[in-house]
TrEMBL record:
<dbReference type="GO" id="GO:0016787">
    <property type="term" value="F:hydrolase activity"/>
</dbReference>
<keyword id="KW-0460">Magnesium</keyword>
<dbReference type="InterPro" id="IPR033713">
    <property type="entry name" value="NudJ"/>
</dbReference>
<dbReference type="InterPro" id="IPR015797">
    <property type="entry name" value="NUDIX_hydrolase-like_dom_sf"/>
</dbReference>
<keyword id="KW-0378">Hydrolase</keyword>
<comment type="similarity">
    <text>Belongs to the Nudix hydrolase family. NudJ subfamily.</text>
</comment>
<dbReference type="Pfam" id="PF00293">
    <property type="entry name" value="NUDIX"/>
</dbReference>
<protein>
    <recommendedName>
        <fullName>Phosphatase NudJ</fullName>
        <ecNumber>3.6.1.-</ecNumber>
    </recommendedName>
</protein>
<dbReference type="InterPro" id="IPR000086">
    <property type="entry name" value="NUDIX_hydrolase_dom"/>
</dbReference>
<feature type="domain" description="Nudix hydrolase">
    <location>
        <begin position="6"/>
        <end position="136"/>
    </location>
</feature>
<comment type="subunit">
    <text>Monomer.</text>
</comment>
Length: 158
């Protein structure tokens, strides 16, 4: 019997300030890679809540999503030959205060602010092709209301 298709749901923050985008540099099985602050959606949270949590864990910054930039699918072969499809919900919003005492999540080497040109020039170091696509959609002005992604109250059941 064929295994059921189950994409992994991830959330990502597209954060721009003064023409620069906040990215993270992280250790991966392919070496150091650049990415949006992003990660897997956890049980008991909405996608916007997951994006705020992941941004805090990976950048030590508070983040308040204000709009959905887009929903994306990508596929890649992981180490060991595992074929994985990811569904990414990317949000933009308001970057809050930095907590200088907060340690970055395991595997995150540093945060950095890069221009659009620097991001394009570093495409060979992107963890996912979605990093560039999300930035392009953000720059094109794509913004959708948070209400587009409905989270049923059953998600919050204990």
């Amino acid at each position: 019997m064929r295994q059921r298709f189950q994409p992994r749901v991830t959330v990502a923050a597209v954060i721009e300030r003064g023409g620069r985008f906040l990215l993270i540099e992280e250790e991966t099985s392919d070496g150091l890679r650049l990415n949006n602050p992003a990660g897997h959606l956890d049980p008991g949270e909405s996608p916007a809540e997951g994006c705020a949590r992941e941004t805090l864990e990976e950048t030590a910054h508070l983040f308040k999503p204000t709009a959905l930039v887009g929903v994306y699918l990508s596929r890649r072969d992981r180490a060991g030959g595992e074929d994985v499809t990811y569904m990414r919900l990317a949000f933009c919003g308001e970057l809050g205060a930095l907590d200088p005492e907060r340690a970055l999540d395991t595997g995150i080497v540093r945060t950095l602010w890069l221009t659009e040109h620097e991001i394009r020039a570093s495409a060979d170091r992107h963890r996912s092709p979605l990093l560039l696509r999300c930035m392009e959609d953000y720059l094109a002005g794509r913004r959708y209301p948070l209400s587009l992604v409905h989270t049923d109250p059953s998600v919050y059941r204990s």
